[in-house]
Amino acid sequence: MTLSVQLVHFFRNKSSWQANLICMPRDDFERSLAQQLIIQADALGGQAPFLKAAEGKDLRGYDLKKPNAKRSHADLAEQRLLKISSLLDRQASILNAPNPEVVINKYATTHGLNAQRTRFFFLAHLCFGESGYALFPHYFNCGRGERLKKSSTRKLGRPSIARGKHAGCRVDAEMVEKMVKSYKKYRGVGKPMTEIYDEAMRKTFKARTRIDKLGNKHIVSSNGSPLPTLDQYRYWLEKEIGKDTIDLYRWGKEKHRRSKAGHQGKFSSSVSNLLERIEADAYYCADKPRSFLGEGHLKPLAVTRLVDTASGLRVGIGFSFEKENSEAYNAALFCAAISKKKFCSLFGIDIKEAQWPSQGMPPHYITDRGPGIKREPGHEQYQGEGLVIREMTQSGQGQSKAIVESAQRRTTNLEGLVHHMASSLNVTQMIVREITRLIKENDSADASGHMTPEMIEHQVSITPLGIWNFLDVRARNDGELMSFDGAVRRFLIKVSVTVSRDGVWLRSQRYSSEALKESKILTRSSTVGRQTISAYMYPMCVRHIWVEVKGKLIEVDAQLNLRDDEQMLYRTYEDLQVEEQQLNQLKAEHRQHSRASAIEHQSQFEQETGAPWNSGKAQRTRLKRHKATKDEEKELHAVFEGKKHNNED
Fold this sequence. Notes:
There is one protein chain. The protein is an alpha+beta fold. The protein contains 24 helices and 17 strands. It folds into four domains: 4-141, no CATH class; 147-260, no CATH class; 268-409 and 420-472, 2-Layer Sandwich (Nucleotidyltransferase, domain 5); 495-581, no CATH class. The strands form five sheets. The chain has a six-stranded antiparallel β-barrel with strand order 12-13-14-17-16-15. A five-stranded mixed β-sheet has the order 8-7-5-9-10. A hairpin with a 2-residue loop joins strand 15 (531-538) and strand 16. Helix 11 packs across helix 12. The chain is elongated and about 170 Å long.
């Protein structure tokens, strides 16, 4: 008895799936396997090839989507199973028959069934019946054919609502190429598809307008060539070019990336440690600060902030007027590099280290293509120490630094007349407010998007501060520590100050400290005269500056000429310039006032006494002293000393 092997070949013939049973001797089959003439393949993972289009989908869900359908997919599958149930009951005898297909075809003819379908259902159930979907209708395969390969001249696709079935022209490969070329020629950023279609019809397809009997207008070809409809034009462009490319031109690269394209993942997932990477950006305070002189309001305050990618903690803050500038970004980096308790003390704010624990420079620094890309003043002396990787995002691409963008303040765009917010705070008070706001956000912002299962297990607070503390205590911190003097020299502005015996002068403000006095530079100024030395200042707070004496930085404090409120010393450098201009103006006015006062009082003296103000005359001979003169002098001495008055008493 010769043993045989039976194989089922599933294939698609035109629009329907078919199955054939192939029988061959076992020896031939095994020999073909050994010689790799027949290769075992499992590319479909055991899934029926006619169900490939529905791979990964819940086929039972098809019926749930159409509850009002006349016949459900499950009912059709059950009917097919009933039709081949008799064949399944005697499948052993059928498969052992000399020609099983003849037996199946005879059964189908006897019972009034289609032989080809009956054979396909029977063999499909034998091969894939355990999945439960072998007899499931595969209507999801409809519409997946290559329309350009079909020989039909009729229009394919759904019928036109306005003009009926088969209305319109059949699209061929030549027309598709023509549509693609016309789109590439007439497309533009922000240009709608309707405008591109209109221009393509006029210039490429040579269309003109015709009016029918009802007065409706239609486009027709002027040279007899077929014209695609707008839907056909859009369909084939999306098929050939891709919907993403079309949307990119329709909405622009920035808007497409922000609101149309799919997300590419979370930015925080690319880091694992604190200060591995930080992002920088600026926002503007809605309310404008009160003028230093108390008259009107200044330009808006721009606030630059640095945000850690891993934790979302705000690690640095800087300030500028009217618009963000490089000084604001440098000031924010200075803040990030030093102890925050020290930083806050520069503005008269007293905090604990635990309230704002970050300190150090990151190796990776991200900013946009604005003033933030400019190098800090002293970067040449600190090559390779932090900020090794500097990444610049594209203009208008907020998603490239999404962490800091999402952490910035939001403003409400009100309709109607333009609103201008006037603050009762001066610049220094507003800066203190924004620093306090930052500390508050670190302790209250929702950072649940940065949480890991381990953090959840340890019940870590879902704030940037909570995540920072969790990672920092585990030494997951890539920040590079920098000395305070190094941060001053690297990030702050270098200026020249004048040295005198009572301190150093920046503009009209005097500075001094015990350390400065001990350096002996003040006493030396009485010998060498006027001299200037280098100093560093934080532009938005000149309450303290740092002077360089013999290569060493000394912190000096602004001084008052009277014992008074020291809050007056918390000013910006711009305030200092305004104050100096006002003081110079007062001095200039005083010079005129002084001369006018002298003239006034000299004239008054001459009018009252009748004697000239300058009555002295120069003589070349020695003045004579008579006895009467000497007696008058003695009498005057006695009067001034009170002796004559006492004698008279």
